[in-house]
## 1
Amino acid sequence: MSLQKNPVRPVDFIWDQIKSEATDIVRDEPVIGGMVHASILHHSTFERALSHRFAAKLATDEMGVQLLREIADEAFAEDPDIAQRARADLVAVYERDPACQQLSQALLFFKGFQAIQSYRIGHWLWERKRSHLAYFVQNRTSEVFGVDIHPGAKIGQGIMIDHAHSIVVGETAVIGDNVSMLHSVTLGGTGKEHDDRHPKIGDGVLIGAGAKVLGNIQIGHCSRIAAGSVVLEDVPPMKTVAGVPARIVGEAGCAQPSVMMDQLIGLRDPSGD
């Protein structure tokens, strides 16, 4: 007689924490219990919860919930890295945004997190030459969340978009890992040129509210872009730029500006004089 071992369930600390928080939400605020059950507690995995949220938020009369769920489920099954990046995004929001008190908050209510996850599915479609469906996801993400990210853009993990209103990211933009940006940021082009025409944002960069970064320029890792700046030239790593047009005004001030979220910029001469 052979003994059969029960399969070991992989440990997913983030998902376990989300479910625990959801149980508390239902207890403390039963009026939204139905939404919390539908969005979290009815699902066996983080991936299935993401699929549901994606479909529930973007569905229209033209493209229903079930069809969008099938698309998202296919994406997560074929490319598990999408969900891993989503986990990193979720942790980034929780750690950097003082308004986020629980992981489940971002999943349920924070449109910056939700918009990035919608982009990730749109990008998966784009990479597989399913451009029309990718454009549908981009269009609905813009309509629902006020965040317009071209599905051709390349975005790393650990991304935090605070408030997430009027964000624009162009087709050939590249965003590294652990980047934070605030509302009304534009990563755009400078005219009607084609080909590679959008900014390349390094790892650990902090982009302040209303900043415009335009053209095929390089923003060095762990740099800071002050709120309201218009950046038209390359920025070296670990520098702070401010102004219209933006100029270097000092060092970045810390090793990881995107994590520290320190936006207080002293406009001193970078030479120290």
## 2
Amino acid sequence: MRPSGRAPDQLRTVILETGVSRHAEGSCIAKFGDTHVLCTASVEEKVPPFLRNTGKGWVTAEYGMLPRSTHTRTDREAAKGKQSGRTHEIQRLIGRSLRSVTDLAAMGERQIKIDCDVLQADGGTRTASITGAFVALHLAFQRLVRLELLKSVPLTDHVAAISCGIYEGTAVLDLDYPEDSNAQADANFVMTGTGGIVEIQGTAEERPFSRTQFLELTDLAEAGIRQLVEAQKKALGLT
């Protein structure tokens, strides 16, 4: 039995609430159970130096955890004067995931920065960030279309992410903190709405896991991603 009482293939309750920031061009709070992440998209009419005069745009991301998003307070990274390796890794992952479904040439020479701020953490903050960040990005593009700065939304597909793991010998979907901290293996899957694989991060914690178990995790992830994409479509009014 999972600590939460969920079935092995059951997601936590997922809520994607849009329009939560007055000023951002796109915003979404992604709630995966007790993990809550605020995702905002900001449009800038400029690009990084390496893209100037190329006609292409850019999508990038920043990620951070509020001091009391966890059980005990952690200092802000700004107070420490540097970001942790974990923060760098996660924000690069979010950016790569979003760019994988963005037509950078079609968005023109502008940049969209996604900020993912963890309000409350209970496992799976990076997967909630990616899932919510896509919604915020889509909303920002929709705004540019309404302003007649773009002809259409330059996204080729949906992208979402979910965690899976081996908990007490069983493959389970969408790990919360009690499972994540005690899993024999855990993995994060980033996939598109059409089933394409963007990235897989998998780690054995106690002992190596088998190819059969990996395929079990992949099957769970594919089913979970399909549900998340439907939630994204509903939040965006696309269904």
